[in-house]
Amino acid sequence: MHVQEWLDTVPAAAVYAVVGLVIGLESLGIPLPGEIILVSAALMSSQHSGIDPLILGACASAGAVIGDSIGYAIGRKGGRPLLAWLGGKFPKHFSEGHIATAERSFQKWGMWAVFFGRFVALLRIFAGPLAGVLRMPYWKFLIANVLGGIVWAGGTTAVIYYVGVVAESWLKRFSWLGLVLAVAIGIASMLVLKRKAARAAPLTAGD
Asked: pTM for the complete prediction?
């Protein structure tokens, strides 16, 4: 079933809970389609009077911030063995090349890697655990985590909501285009990261 169609069959409170939970788990380090769920719910809020975009944005932001914070705590406690374990469970997402690319981003940009990583599909699942593994000072992580979570989750909700309101009649016939756009952005960012990971892998092996 189409994601938006499925969300439309459950109560508003369940939509808020599902969005917050999926985004929280993704931010914690579990590869889930958080962005697709958020875009679907935000688009639905522009067409469904029962879904409040403010509450939706707040739940999405809370899920992002809490999930990242839990991921940070797990990463700080688990250290590099945790990354090796994740690599075994999710080799496509936590390959050595991807980890090397993400680690270079953290070393170069510090707390800004946490902030901007929120906007890149694969980096969203790395940010919390990797910041903990690298023992980034928690106050720096918290600032970047809160700002990034609010700007990404709240901003995405607002943009999709207002696009849906302005073009409601058009989107009722072509609502799937919003999801196609989100998927296209996700795939593009994944391809860029894979290319960087492929370049980083030989360097990692050489070390």
From this structure: 0.71
Q: Which two tokens stand for residue 153?
A: 């989750």
Q: Mean pLDDT, to the nearest integer, of 56-82?
A: 88
Main-chain phi, psi angles of 118, to 5 degrees: -60, -25
Tokens 């999926």 correspond to 22
> Residue 155's closest CA among 64, 61, 62, 23?
61
Long-range contacts of 5-11 (CB under 8 A, 24+ apart): 7/37, 7/40, 7/41, 7/44, 8/44, 8/48, 11/50
Residue 7, classed as helix, strand or coil, is helix
Buried b / exposed e along 104-142 (16+ C-beta atoms within 10 A)? ebbeeebbebbbbbbbbbbbbbbbbbbbbbbebeeeebb
